[in-house]
Amino acid sequence: MEIRLQKMIAGTGLSSRRKAETLIAAGRVTVNGKVVTELGTKVDPERDHVKVDGRHLTGAQPFVYLMLNKPKNVMSTLDDPGGRTTVKDFLHGVSVRVFPVGRLDFDSEGLMLLTNNGELAQALLHPRYHVPKTYLIKVKRVLTDDEIAQLQQGVHLEDGMTSPAIVKKVKKAEQNSWLEITIREGRKHQVKRMLEAVGHPVIKLMRIRMGPLSLGDLGPGEFRFLTDREANALRELVEQRLELEQTGQSPSARPQRPKRREGWAKPDGIRKQSMKKARRVA
What we know:
The protein has 282 residues and is an alpha+beta fold. It has three domains: 54 residues, RNA-binding S4 domain (Structural Genomics Hypothetical 15.5 Kd Protein In mrcA-pckA Intergenic Region, Chain A, Roll); 92 residues, Pseudouridine synthase I, catalytic domain, N-terminal subdomain (Alpha-Beta Plaits); 92 residues, Alpha-Beta Plaits. It is built from seven helices and 17 strands. Strands 7, 8, 9, 10, 13, 14, 15, 16 and 17 form a nine-stranded mixed beta sheet that branches. The protein has a four-stranded antiparallel beta sheet with strand order 3-2-5-6. Strands 1-4 form a two-stranded antiparallel sheet. The longest helix is centred in the last third of the chain and has 19 residues. It is elongated, with a radius of gyration of 22 Å. The chain starts with a strand and ends with a helix. The C terminus is likely disordered.
């Protein structure tokens, strides 16, 4: 079966697809001994001989999925021109080239997915799939029920109204409070801007869930490979939402507003260690 040349190169783990396009355009790729610079070129990995800088490419590597608990003050990229620590520095023993699916702010922490499956990564990041992401957040001062209702209904930001969020009160102190917020959008600094819009700047932010994945007991700087069940759940999530879209149904159904609870609930699926850390900085 023929596939695009840049897709084949990326599938071997040599580079990302975008980097592969740069290699092709620069004349550094040959197919059956001839230099190819056309990005639309298709090849058959089983029949054609592809070389990059004279090096023959072997077959595509198997898809790999892993979850990392990104620590605070770490770049969520694979390299940094400023020499700061990146997520790549924590992937000891990972021989396959993987890349982050989305980003977390430098001063934020928590769940990051990394994979070499470019198609799945693009689908998970595409706005039309509305993959839910849940954050454990410490904010200045204690939110009122009216402010929580604002977040649940959507708040106005400079780039437009946000979609409704699911908000759960976790715990409060005299000067600040902890919340769980689930959103289905991916605007830049969205959660921080939402809280600032209702008058509560974020002090600490940790992503604890992404779609079917949960951070669980994974410690800061630790990673693990996804189980087959987790990887299949990611693929099914994208396939189900694509099927809904093709049948004319909206995959972006508004999340149901949770019933208002009295008091402050314990966070779902958060490790005790995280909450102990939270108390130390409260």
